[in-house]
Design brief:
This protein is an alpha/beta fold and 193 residues long. It is built from eight helices and six strands. The protein has a three-stranded mixed sheet. It has a three-stranded mixed sheet with strand order 4-5-6.
Length: 193
């Protein structure tokens, strides 16, 4: 169990999907003998992060309890919300999908901020190791000039640096830093089990 937990944590750290402790805390088996919620949660994570249109400008969280998957977060286009829900509903063991994903409003100014913040973060030498990944782990969600950073980084220093970079961009009204370190994710998973 510990080995699979560490493998799960490592995969989690590299995924673009923000995986939270409350979602993992609900892991267990369902009454009808379905697959464990933790495995289901892992499969949902893979389905979302492997979705071809899922970008660093989208953020989706998932929680699983007794085969019922609740999706939350924000995406940039309406078709992404529908596609992600369809992908998750096809996973073996999913009994129901509650889609609470919201679609960000269309705004050219927000688009400019998204690109400026992401470019500034991923061109910083401290984040080059993330920029070369096919699925970079820091997500930049912008709504009405307010930036929310989500995802996983390696240290508190990287969390602070990402926030500082985002805050320094022209047009950004506020920054909410929801980045988690790998250690925070690991601790949350270990406490849950």
């Amino acid at each position: 169990m510990r080995k699979s937990l560490l493998l799960f944590t490592a995969g989690l750290a590299l995924s673009a999907l923000s995986l939270t402790a409350p979602a993992a805390a609900t892991a267990g088996t369902t009454d009808d003998g379905s697959r464990k919620d933790l495995q289901l949660f892992n499969d949902v994570s893979k389905a979302v992060t492997r979705y071809v249109h899922f970008t660093v400008f989208d953020s989706v969280d998932a929680s699983v309890k007794d085969g019922i998957v609740t999706l939350t977060g924000r995406v940039t286009m309406p078709f992404k919300k529908d596609d992600i829900e369809k992908r998750v509903s096809k996973i073996d063991g999913v009994r129901q999908v509650r889609d609470e994903i919201s679609v960000l409003p269309v705004s050219q100014f927000d688009d400019q901020i998204r690109y400026k913040v992401a470019r500034a973060i991923y061109t910083n030498p401290n984040f080059w190791n993330y920029a070369i990944l096919a699925d970079p782990p820091i997500h930049v969600v912008v709504e009405h000039s307010r930036v929310t950073l989500t995802g996983t980084v390696q240290s508190e220093v990287e969390k602070a640096l990402a926030r500082s970079i985002a805050t320094s961009q022209f047009g950004v009204m506020s920054v909410t830093n929801n980045l988690k370190t790998e250690a925070e994710v690991k601790d949350a998973l270990e406490k849950a089990f």
